[in-house]
Queue: 2 jobs
Job 1
Amino acid sequence: MYKITLSSDEIPKKWYNINADLPVPLPEYKDSEEGGNLANLPKIFSKGVLEQEMSQERWIDIPKEVRDVYKMIGRPSPLFRAKNLEDQLDTPAKIYYKREDYSPTGSHKLNTAIAQAYYAKKDGAERLTTETGAGQWGTALSLACSMLEMECKVYMVKVSFNQKPFRKTIMQLYGGNVIPSPSPDTAYGRKILAEDPDHPGSLGIAISEAVEEALQDDKVYYTLGSVLNHVLLHQTVIGLETKKQLEIADESPDVMIGCVGGGSNFGGAVFPFIKDQIDEKIDCKFIAAEPSSCPTLTQGEYCYDFADSGEMTPRMKMHTLGHSFVPPSVHAGGLRYHGMSPQVALLVKEGLIEGRTVTQDEVFQSGITFAKAEGVVPAPETCHAIKVAIDEAKACKKTGEEKTIVVSFSGHGMLDLQGYDDYLNGKLPKDSK
Ligand SMILES: *Cc1c(COP(=O)(O)O)cnc(C)c1O
C-alpha cells in the first residue's frame, strides 16, 4: 500500500496526554528569582488550554466543534509510503511519511491553532495575539481565527516582515493583522523604537509585545505554536492517526523520526507510540532531528530556563542553549529555538528519545533527493527528518534489515524556495558540523 487514508469520521475523538505515562513526573514550571510570571498565565491563556497544560488525564476529549474544523481542513491526513525513494536508495527498509503538508497552510501547526482559538473563544476572547518569525505559525493562527470568526494580530519580526513578503501576504489574505515588531502598538515596542528606530526585531521582542497586549486586555489571549504541553497534546492527532494507518498496512514501526524546533510535530507524532514502547508492545527507536547550528538536545544543558528571551514566561526544565542564545540565520527558520518541549526533553533525559544533528547542506541535499523521488518538496525543517530517515535506510542496506521507518512530514517547502535556490546555486552559507 502506497497511500493509506482514513475517512473523516476516523479523526481521533480524544487527544493523548503523555503526562499520564511519563516514566518520572514532569518538573513543574517555576517563577524566576525576581518573581511572578506564573501568575500571568491565567491572564494570557484560556482556561481550556491551561487545564490541559497541567492535566494528568491520559485521554482528553476533542470537542466536536474542533473535530468538525479538523474535517473541514481535510483531516485525517494520509500516510504515504516513499516507495520510489526506497528503490533509489536500494534499501530493504520501508519508509512511510505522515503528510502534514496536506494542511491548507502547509504544515502541522493548524492542528493546535484551531484548538487554541476554540478554547479562547469559549472563554470570551475576541482577539488572539502571537509572534511569528519564519511565518508558519502566524499563517496557521490567522486561518484558525478566520474560520472561528475571531481577530488575529501577529507581531512579525521586522527583518522577516521585510524579507518574506509572501508569508506576510498569506497571513493578510486570511485576515490576520500583521505588524512588524518592534511596533508602536505596545509600551515595550515603543521603548525599543525610541532607542533604535531601525531595530531589526527578534522573536523575544515580538513575544513580549504579543504578551503585553494580552495582559492589558481581557478580551485578548496570547497563543504559542510549540513547546508547551497543550500544544503537543493537540498535535497527538498526528500520531493517533498514524497508528491506525500502520495497523491497516499491517506494520509496526522500528524507527520513528521527526524534526524538532520546539518539539510539537515530533511529540505529536511519537507520543502515542512511546506509550506502546513503555508497555513493551513495540521495539522502536525514536529520533529527534535538529540543526547542527541550533543543537538544543544534543548539546544543550538540561536545566530550568525561560521559554523566551524577554524573560516573560515562567522557567521550565528542558534542554536549552540559554534563552539569550541567538542561532545563526539558517533557512530552517522553524527550528531556530534555544529550548525544547519539557516533555520531549524529559524523554531524551530518560533515554527513550535520541537527538541527532543535521547540517544545512545535508538538509537541502536530502530535500532534493526526496523531491526527485517522491515529487513533494519538503520544508527545510522537514528535511532534517528526511536526512535521518535516509541514513537509517542506508544502514538497513548494509545489514539487510527490513525495518519500518516512519517520518513525521511536518510541512511542504513551496514557500521556502529561496533556500533551495541558494543551495542549487552554491550560495548557501557553510555551517559547522
Ligand atoms: C514550525 C515548524 C516546525 C518546527 O516546530 P515543532 O514545534 O518542532 O514541530 C517543523 N516543521 C515545520 C514545517 C514547521 O512549520
Job 2
Amino acid sequence: MDFHFDTKAVRFPRKTKTDTVSKVQPIYQTSSFVFEDLDDLESFYEGKKDYLYTRVSNPNTEDLGMGVADLEGAPKGLATSSGLSAILAGVLSVVKAGDHIVACEDLYGGTYSLFKEELPDFGIEVSFVDFTNKDEVEKAICSNTKLLYTESVTNPLLRVEDLTALVELGQNHELVTMVDNTFATPFLLQPYKLGIDLVVHSATKYIGGHSDVTAGVLVGRENLLAKAKAKVINLGTNLSPFEAWLGCRGLKTMSVRMERHVKNAAFLAEALKNVEGIKKVYYPEYVSERGNGAMVSIELDEHSNVKTFFKSLGWVKIIPTLAGLDTTVSYPIGTSHRTIPETTREKLGINKQLVRISVGIENEVDIVKAFKEAVEKSL
Ligand SMILES: *Cc1c(COP(=O)(O)O)cnc(C)c1O
C-alpha cells in the first residue's frame, strides 16, 4: 500500500500474525487490543474474548495472578499495582460503608495506615486486636463485622498466625477471612488450602524476588475475586504489563531462591543465639515442613549502640524493605513501623534496639561474619 511518509511512520506492527512462537511469554506492552469488526468487539462483552483494554485485562497481568493462584491452590488470582492495592481490592470485595473489620494489631505499617487513615473516610471501621488471644478477637466482633484480617507470619516479630483457629472463628461467625502471606510465600504456606477465603501478597517481595518490581497479588474464592477485579478496574489500580512480566520471571525461580533463603536464615538465627550484645533472636518455628522463612529479627542488648551496629555492617545494605537476593537490614521503628503508635510498639516489643534482617542467598558463612562483626563493634 502506498502511504505517505508520516502514515508509514506510525504503522506498526507491519505483520500482525507471525508463525514464530516465543519460548517466553512476550510482554504485551499495550494499552489496548485490536478488533476486526463490530461483531468481534461485541464478542468481548459476551465473554468470548479476553482482552479489550489493559486496565481491564492483559495477558501478562493475568499470567502473574493466575500463576500465584495455581501455587496457592486457589481458583482465581489477580495482579495489582502494589501489595497495598491488592489488600485494598481484597478488603473492598468484602466490606462497604457501615461495615467493620477486625484486624491484628501487629500489622505491616503500610496496611495499618491504610486501615487507620483511609478506610474510615470510606465509612469502614477497623478494630486492631491481639490475635494471639482468640477470645479478644471474638470479643471485638460486632453485628456489622464482615472481615477478619491478619498476616500468616507477622512483621517484624515473626509471630506465626494460627490459621486453623482463624478459619474456625470465621466460619462460626460467618465472616470472611483474609491473610497477608507475603513473609511466608506460597512456597512455605498456602492459607487458601487451609480454608482462608482471601490471600494477599506483596509481589514486591519474594515473588518478584529481585528488588526491581512493585506489584501485588490477591488470590481466593471466585465470587470475591470477581468483585475485587471490578474494584481494580474502577479504581485504576491495575498492574503494568512489564511489571507483571518481571513478577512472572521472579515467580519461576521462587522455589530455588526460597530454599536457599530459608536455609541461610535458619543458619544465621542459630549462629546469633548466645552472641554477646544480642538480647533476643526472633525466628519463627513450625511455619511449614519446608522451613520457617527468610526473615530474622534481633534485639540488641542495652550495651550495644544501634547506630554503630548499622554503621558497621559493611557490605550488608540498609534498606526499608525486604526479600531481595542480597542480605539487607531494616530498622522497623524508623521505617515500616513508624506509623504504629508507640504504646502498641512497646507492648509488642518493637523497640529502638530491634533490627530486622532479610537474609539473602549469599554464602551463609559470610552473612554470619558480617553480623557478628557488627555486633562486636557496637559494644
Ligand atoms: C511490603 C509489604 C506490603 C505492601 O506491599 P507493597 O508492594 O509495598 O505495596 C504488605 N504486606 C507486607 C507483609 C509487606 O511486607
